Amino acid sequence: METDSMNIVHALKKVLSEQQVSANQSVRELHGRDESYHRESLPDLVVFPETTKQVSEIVNLANKFKVPLVPFGLGTSLEGHVIPYEHGITIDFSRMNKIVEVREKDFLVRVQPGVTRTQLNKELKKYGLFFSVDPGADATLGGMAATNASGTTSVKYGVMRDQVRDLEVVLADRSIIHTGNLAAKSSSGYHLNGLFVGSEGTLGIFTELTLRVYGIPEHIMAARASFPSLNDAVEAVVSILQSGVPIARVELVDENSIRQVNLYSETSYSETPTLFLEFHGNEAGLKQDIEFTTEIVEEHFCLDIQFETENATSNRLWEARHNLAYAFIHGHPGKKMMVTDVCLPISKLSGAISHAREAVDSLGLTGGILGHVGDGNYHVLLMIDMSNPEEIKRAEQLNEKIVLYALEQGGTCTGEHGVGVGKQKYQQKEHGLALVVMEKIKKALDPDNLFNPNKILNKNERV
Amino acid sequence: METDSMNIVHALKKVLSEQQVSANQSVRELHGRDESYHRESLPDLVVFPETTKQVSEIVNLANKFKVPLVPFGLGTSLEGHVIPYEHGITIDFSRMNKIVEVREKDFLVRVQPGVTRTQLNKELKKYGLFFSVDPGADATLGGMAATNASGTTSVKYGVMRDQVRDLEVVLADRSIIHTGNLAAKSSSGYHLNGLFVGSEGTLGIFTELTLRVYGIPEHIMAARASFPSLNDAVEAVVSILQSGVPIARVELVDENSIRQVNLYSETSYSETPTLFLEFHGNEAGLKQDIEFTTEIVEEHFCLDIQFETENATSNRLWEARHNLAYAFIHGHPGKKMMVTDVCLPISKLSGAISHAREAVDSLGLTGGILGHVGDGNYHVLLMIDMSNPEEIKRAEQLNEKIVLYALEQGGTCTGEHGVGVGKQKYQQKEHGLALVVMEKIKKALDPDNLFNPNKILNKNERV
Predict the structure, then answer these.
(1) Which residues of B263-275 are buried (b: 16+ CB within 10 A; e: fewer)?
(2) Which domains does chain A have, with CATH numbers?
(3) So what's the ipTM on this one?
(4) Quick one: which of A422, B84, B400, B460 could link to B43 by a disulfide (CB 3.0–4.6 Å)?
């Protein structure tokens, strides 16, 4: 496609400026990987649009030259979503990073897809508001919508899909649609918001998002509770949920992970299975919630519970939790990260984590177990030596064991990271005939398979 | 289709028993209307399946004979969803009304589509659980999922779509799929749960639902606050939401509606614009929420606020609110009900309600204004003399004025009742090119247009 490539560059430069089109090797390399172990593959070109109209023009040209398109935020994906295995053009949204409108009274914000979560929260703070979804990484909001990201606060505030009121989307036929509206609820037409969120760039390209935001809670209280075993910690979470205490965050971190945290963040948390908790509410209500929670964790053999009353200490706690993945990366130079991501009905979580722990040990791997246990979502975080095929194989065996266990219990292969290329082989097993429906939708909306081709749906590799 | 009709009856009786197939006139009449003003139209046949397999067999025969299918719960729809304007077969789900499984620890319940909301709540009470969506009418859960119903508690617990974890669906090609799983969240594949909820029988027929349920709150407090004007009441709600008080219900009822309530329910509530409120939480937290709310409503010129501490009084309050539609029907014998159903961003609600009040008066109509104002959703409830074409015309003018105002403000033509036939003409205006995406999805999944044909999507009538 040497000549074609020249032609499309020529055509792109008619609708974009010189600086917005790059075939530079180092730029291409930056867009050929994500934060995971998935192998690299470079785009032929990287473009940097500044407007929705420019995105639509790019789609038009991609159509004309039959060139694949992959949207790209900051490359924090964990299953190879943004890696252009079919090459073609990567659309980098770093120049579309404006917060367009804060509708304070409506608890809504309108942003371009390249805005990051921390950038948004910095702005919202001026209004006493915050954006709730917190996947750890400082991802772009466009990327978070594309994978239906979630994280530490989802147990209370919901996942990315719950926050999206409207998306502006460029379709494969280059038309520009809006998938929703500004109302808090609607029963009008098919739920396109929900369909496009989590579609990983395979159905359309997001050019603007209208998101729900929340008032910063009147009072916030953080806590750390350590337990003699992982199982005790998980059962304590199940009991807290049963009790109806409206917990805002509840994170499990195992002893391995706490060790990495202590090394990386220079903390000295006790190296036992630990829950990091957070409560939001009014002062009197919080006090009662905390008393009740303390009783519950003590019934589950809690070794120690510490409440962080100072804002700074509490922030340090969550910063340590959020830096966990980076702590592992930092502690294992030269290795690559593989993270499992299953989610199960809460009654099956304790069994699943025991099973995972045994599988990690029996495969001779080392890794941390952590997760958003209030949602039934946990991760095994492994650092892999990519020059050792046998180690890669064992890590993949572990991932498969964990996924199959979750599917047997009515769970899902991915709670929040998405399918990308890493979870494709489990789609048939998880969705059965529903996968045919997904394929029909893809075919109807992107008949030439130009939008992030062969992600999510791929018939070649199946378990 | 006389002969075809005989043939299909013959074929149906091979897969269903004698009692499960009816061409009886009075049975057909019961399935030819809903609770609204939309004109009647009878199905040719009504079938009463008992299993998913039987539903799949019915779809198979409908395909073979090219006969339209309309699923039917209890006929409580308000926009003609269940009326078979193309005739064919109505599938009545009254024999599929079992609560299959209560997964107490997972806060999940599995039900057949014919189970009603009150039937479910009666069972759940034994476990200390409740199902949150409360549209007033005792609708079936299948019907509620089909229209993405919501109601009084949605401001806290969300709409029907937020509760659906999994649907078993029979598709037009008679295959049986599951749209989700039992995990609290998932990023695996396209979000078919969200797509099928609200699809009004046009994409598939639901044969089983897995729904999220909640623990009955530790403490519940109800209140009634009356205001000198509708505007003051609405502005009070906006301030309560701004304040971050986690209100569980907040219903506006205007003076006309309170009058109907008093007549029908033999209550003596003061006949001024009133908010019905409810708070869920722990005792200490509630106390603080209530104090704060009282301060807020007083700033908005509240005439009187009464807290209902007795469970019985509080139940009577909500029963009165729920019976409001029936109170209007009872108070206007021989007339039919038309209810507007727009939803707007909360900052636009007060203006919208003032506009609606003026429009009602200037068109010389009488009706009540009420609604789930915490969501920005309100209704004008009109009783129409269907023998008076001029009155019908004025009512339709009102509906159109209200819808167009809502759309201009970024709202939706239907917050919770759905499109059916009543809101079809606004789909193009509301969705623009996104309607093409919906049409493509319909075409991909139901190429012969046999599933509730010409509902939601209909090109013939557009504003």
Answers:
(1) ebbeeebeebbbb
(2) 2-94 (3.30.43.10), 99-215 (3.30.465.10), 219-326 (3.30.70.2190), 334-417 (3.30.70.2740)
(3) 0.96
(4) B84
